[in-house]
Amino acid sequence: MAGLDGLRVLLLLAGLVAMANCQVNPTVVLTTTTGQTNSTVVLATTTAPFVVVSENATVDPKNSTGPPPPMCNYSGEADKTGFLFTFEDVTEGNYSIKLTELSTGVSNKVTNEVPLNGTNATHLLQYLKPSTDYRVHISPSNEPKVTCGGNLELKTNGINQDEIVELPTDSYQDICYKTEWNINNAVFDVSRKDYTFCIKPKYTDLCTNLTTLIYPTLTLTKWIGLEYLNPDNIKLEVPNKLPAEINWRNQEDLKCEGLGINFTCQGPDRREYKLDKLEPYTKYSCTGVLYNLNKTIAIEKKVTKEVEITCDLELMKVTAAPSKESVKFQWNTSSKNCSNLSQHNDLLYSCKCNDAPKAHSTLPSKERCEVTGLLPFTAYYCEIQPRFNDKPIGRPTKIRSSTSAGVPKAVEIEKTTQVEHNAFQVECTDLKKEDWKGPDTFYHATITGSEEKKTNGKCFFEFRDLSYSTGYTVSIFAFNGVNSGKAGRVQLQTSWALVFEA
C-alpha cells in the first residue's frame, strides 16, 4: 500500500506540474444551450505573456496542435515625446502598435514594422501629443488578434519650452517653431520626426511682447520687433494742400516710439524732390523709408505713395471792361489749400469768348487778359481758364459780357423823287440788324436852309414847301442811340412854279 500511495503522490505531483504549465494558455469551451460547441476563446490576465483571441477557428480541447503563439510580454513608461516599451522573452518578429487616445476614443495604428528579438528588447515610440492619456495595444504584425500582455494605459510627459525651437527666418512675416511633440493634432506618422507651426503677428503686436498659447499647458512669449512690420499694413493719406504732406494714418495703433518715414519723390522729369518742394497739378511717385530714432531696424522697410496736389483755385472779384471791339478782364486769385499759389510763376490764365471767330486773346498772363476782334454791341459768353505749366487746370470761370455800342454803318441814298416843283422824296437802303451796332435804330435827315431834323424808323423822307428854283443838300444818317453813322448826302434843285393868268 505504501508503494501504491507513493505512486499516487508522484502522479498527483506530475498532474499539478502539467496544470501549472497549462495556466499559460487556459482553455474555456463555450457551448450553446443546445449543447453545440461554440468558438473557443483563450483568456489571460494582464500579467500573462499574451492573449489569443480567435473568432473563426474551432479548437478541440482534447487535441490542440500547431505552433505556439509568440511570447511578447512587455511594460511601458513615458519617455521623451512618447513611450519606451520594454519586452521580455519576446519572440523574434515584427510587431504592430496601436494607440487609442482616451479623451477622444480615436484609434490609430501608429506602426506596423517594429522588429523585436531576444530578451529585454526595447522600442521608443515618439512624436505623440504631450500630457495625453493613451491605451496601448501591441500585437504581432501577422497575428493582429494576439494581444501582447494586456492593453496598457499610459500618459505622455508634459511639454516644456526647451522642447520648442524657433526657426530662423529671412522674410520676417511669420514666427515659426519646430517641436517633436504633436501639438497640431495631426494624424500620427511614424516617419515624421517633428512638427512645425507658425504665428503671424498682427500690425498692433509690433513693439510688444507677444504671448501665444501654444498648448493648453504652455505659452510662448516673443518680442515683436519692427522687422515683422508688413509695409502693406501702413495706411497713408495725402492731404490735398501745399506744402505737401504724407501722413501715417494708423501710426497711433502701434506702441513703438521714435518712428517716422522719410519720403523722397520723383517727378515727371525723373528728378528727386522733398515733399516741401512738390508743385501742384503734378504727379509724383514717392518712396518712404521707415526709421526709428531709438534703434536700427534690421530690415529696411519701404512704402510707396502717389501724390498729386490739386488746389482749390478760385477767381474772385472778376471785372469786365468792354469797349466797342474788345473786353478786358481782371480778377484776384484765392486758394485755401495752396496759399501761395497765386505767386507761382507757372500759373497763368488764358481768355476766350464764344461765337467770335475773328477774336483773339492776349498771351496767358497773371490775373488779367483782353479779348479783341469782337463785334460792337454784342453779348458774349467768355471764359477765363487757369493754366499751370501751360496745361489747363480746374474748371474755367464763365462770364457773360457785352461790347459797347459802335458806329452804325453809313447810309447809302438809293433814289430821289421830285413830287412837286418845291417838294422831294428821298429813299435809302435800310440797314441790317448787325449794321446798327447799338440799342436803337433811327434815321435822321436834315436839309440845308432849315434847322429841322427829321426822324424816321424807315429810311424814307419827304421835303415840301421848299423855295422855288433853289438848290438844297439833304443829309441822312443812322443813329443807334449812342453813335451816329456816316451820313449819305444828295443834291436837290427845286424848279420855277408855272403861273397861268385867266
What would you say this structure looks like, in words?
The protein is rod-shaped and about 180 Å long. β12 and β13 form a beta hairpin. The chain contains two helices and 37 strands. The longest helix is centred in the first third of the chain and has 21 residues. It folds into five domains: 127 residues, Sandwich (Immunoglobulin-like); 67 residues, no CATH class; 79 residues, Immunoglobulin-like (Sandwich), CATH 2.60.40; 89 residues, Immunoglobulins (Immunoglobulin-like), CATH 2.60.40; 81 residues, Immunoglobulins (Immunoglobulin-like). The N terminus is likely disordered. The strands form twelve sheets. It has a four-stranded antiparallel β-sheet, with no helix packed on it. It is mainly β. The protein starts with a helix and ends in a 9-residue tail after the last strand. Helix content is 5%, strand content 41%.
Give a short summary of the structure.
This protein is mainly beta. 5% of the residues lie in helices and 41% in strands.
**Content-based structural category:** mainly beta
CATH superfamily of the largest domain: Immunoglobulins
- Overall pLDDT metric: 83
User: Radius of gyration from the CA trace?
Assistant: 59 Å
| Overall CATH architecture of the largest domain | Sandwich
Q: Strands across the major sheet, in which order?
A: 7-6-9-11
Mind describing the biggest β-sheet? 4 strands, antiparallel
Unreliable segments of 5+ consecutive residues: 1-64
Question: Counting H and I runs of at least 4 residues, what is the number of helices?
Answer: 2
Tell me the helix content. Answer: under 10%
How many strands? 37
Tell me the overall shape.
rod-shaped
CATH topology of the largest domain: Immunoglobulin-like
